[in-house]
Amino acid sequence: MYFPYLRGRQFELLALRELAEHNLLSKKVTPIIEPIKPSSTLIKTMGLFIEKNRYFAVIHNPQVGSFNKELASLEANNINENLMKALQDKRIIKSHIINENSHAELDKLLSEGNKRDELLLINNASDYIDTYLTKFSDKKAKYILIPDKSTFKRRIKAKENRISLDDKFKKKARNADYLEVEDEPFSEDHLYYEEDGYLGFSDYSIVGADFFESGFAPYAVAIHIVYLDSEQKLRIKHFVSDTNEDFNDPAGKFYEALKKLMAWKSKTAIDTRGMREFTKHYERGTYPGLGTVKKLSIMHHVELVSKYLDGESNKYDMLQ
Question: 297, 11 in Cβ contact below 8 A?
Fold first, then answer.
């Protein structure tokens, strides 16, 4: 099972929504969203997953953004009411990041009628392992996401609900820095997670675990594309613009990066919705904006893993 972990930015939500809308997500894929603010995009995304009878995990105590602060300030309105309604649906998995306040936060969550064995938990700090073991001593959580480290595996031993969570994206300080490493390993978790004692695996896709409240205009445009090599290992290629002296002409820089992507794609058998959309922009000479570039790269990655889990990875192998 695969649990792509994304923050609730608009284009990350739109990536998941478009995949679900076109039935491109394996039933072995359950997205996790750590929302950064209550929004109509979040509500619509949850609504579509509910409509499609698909599971979708939402973290109730996000550690980034201003979700709970903004939610508390909302008066009774459509956003508030629709969000609360969606969060009560059985297909929305209630999720919790274990932290220093978890005893009280989990007590409140359980007092609202949620059951321990229906929760998804994220425990990514060794200081809070005891919190998990104490609160779930008599009944296990539905899923517990932990780093693939011996400290966690020694103490959180139940393999039937354990999910490995790791940041596979090696983020550079500047997009231009990816010119120095055009191709690198991404992940082998999809091959070995069961052998390693996990029910499933999770990562932060091509975004990475680091969170920044606001973006900025980059000097370089980079397109990050995950692919399966001849051994079915996931690798990632970085397609980067060349004229990176200032932040002017992002559309031209996008075309420079996209041209490199299209040259590489012509030598592969890769075919995903995200890749087809990139191809349309290349053929039409259109620039969709950097948010959409990220959306399409996420869509491509998650669909690729979906196909692999459903046994359809042969069509994505690199051509020799």
Answer: no
295/249 Cα distance (integer angstroms): 20
How far is it, in rounded angstroms, from Cα 133 to Cα 194? 23
Q: Is 11 helix (H, G, I), strand (E, B) or coil?
A: helix
In the three-class reduction of DSSP (H, G, I as helix; E, B as strand; rest coil), residue 164 is classed as strand
**The pLDDT of residue 315:** 47
As given in the structure block, the two tokens for residue 162 are 């354990």
Give me the pLDDT at residue 83, please. Answer: 83
Q: What is the DSSP letter of 261?
A: H
SS3 259: helix
Rounded CA separation 279/281 (Å): 5
**Prediction pTM value:** 0.93
Torsion angle, alpha carbons of 137, 142, 145, 150, to 10:
50
Q: Are 80 and 38 in contact (CB under 8 A)?
A: yes
Hey, which residues does 202 pair with through a beta bridge?
3, 165
Looking up tokens 């491109």 gives 24
Query: Could you tell me if 316 and 307 are in contact, meaning their C-beta atoms sit under 8 angstroms apart?
Result: yes
For the CA atoms of 170, 32, 161, 92, the dihedral, rounded to the nearest 10 degrees, stands at: 180
Question: Could you give the CA distance from residue 91 to residue 283 in angstroms, rounded to a whole number?
Answer: 39
Residues in the chain predicted with pLDDT less than 70, given as ranges, are 72, 74-78, 213-215, 313-320
Instruction: Quote the pLDDT of residue 69.
Output: 75
